[in-house]
């Protein structure tokens, strides 16, 4: 059985709406594009037809991905504004030996926003950050085998 995808209610609703849109309006729209391209003639040299079929393949791949995520979704409470880092929290950290503050959302990649990086709660850094409070220093082993230390500056 696949691991559950932990999502906030807002992310679940957004993904469900996208899935519903792609399986209805999206499929109808791509079918029309393919039909129009077929009317242009010889399919072997028809760039519009091949582009529409490629777009259809990408869309169907996204539909299958969304279906799997939604099937295995576990709705979790977002830990925003808390005293400790939890799922859905945006945490500002500083790596030891660095002055630059970096912001991460601790959660699923499906929760991604433009203004923050995403770190999975199951990753070494995400697991180390869970439960940490402002002012705490946590260590984790990076994929390279190096031990990294980060200081928690702020939790949103």
Strand order of the largest sheet: 5-4-3-7-6
- The overall pLDDT, averaged over residues, is 89
Q: Can you give the helix content as a percent range?
A: 25-40%
Tell me the radius of gyration: 21 Å
**The CATH fourth-level homologous superfamily of the largest domain:** Transcription elongation factor, GreA/GreB, N-terminal domain
Order of helices and strands: EHHEEEEHEE
Please give the domain count.
2
Secondary structure tally, helices: 3
What does the main sheet amount to?
5 strands, mixed
Kindly identify the CATH topology of the largest domain: Helix Hairpins
CATH architecture of the largest domain: Orthogonal Bundle
General form? elongated
Catalogue the unreliable spans: none
Report the sheet-strand fraction: 15-25%
Beta strand count: 7
CATH class of the largest domain: Mainly Alpha
Q: Can you give a write-up of this model?
A:
- 39% of the residues lie in helices and 22% in strands.
- The longest helix has 30 residues, at 9-38.
- It has 3 helices and 7 strands; from the N terminus they run βααββββαββ.
- With 156 residues, it is of the alpha/beta class.
- The protein has 2 domains: 5-75, Helix Hairpins (Orthogonal Bundle), CATH 1.10.287.180; 90-155, Transcription elongation factor, GreA/GreB, C-terminal domain (Chitinase A, domain 3, Roll), CATH 3.10.50.30.
- The two termini are 33 Å apart.
- The chain has helices at 9-38, 47-71, 124-129; strands at residues 5-7, 73-75, 90-95, 101-106, 117-119, 137-141, 147-155.
- Strand 3 and strand 4 form a beta hairpin.
């Amino acid at each position: 059985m696949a691991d559950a995808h932990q999502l906030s209610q807002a992310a679940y609703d957004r993904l469900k709406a996208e899935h519903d849109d792609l399986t209805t309006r999206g499929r109808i729209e791509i079918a029309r594009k393919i039909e129009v391209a077929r009317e242009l003639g010889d399919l072997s040299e028809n760039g519009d037809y091949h582009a529409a079929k490629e777009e259809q393949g990408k869309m169907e791949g996204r539909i299958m991905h969304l279906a799997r995520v939604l099937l295995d979704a576990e709705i979790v409470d977002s830990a925003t504004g808390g005293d400790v880092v939890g799922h859905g929290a945006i945490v500002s950290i500083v790596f030891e030996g660095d002055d630059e503050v970096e912001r991460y959302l601790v959660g699923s990649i499906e929760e991604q926003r433009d203004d923050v990086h995403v770190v999975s709660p199951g990753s070494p850094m995400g697991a180390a950050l869970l439960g940490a409070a402002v002012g705490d220093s946590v260590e984790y082993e990076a994929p390279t085998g190096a031990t990294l230390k980060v200081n928690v500056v702020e939790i949103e």
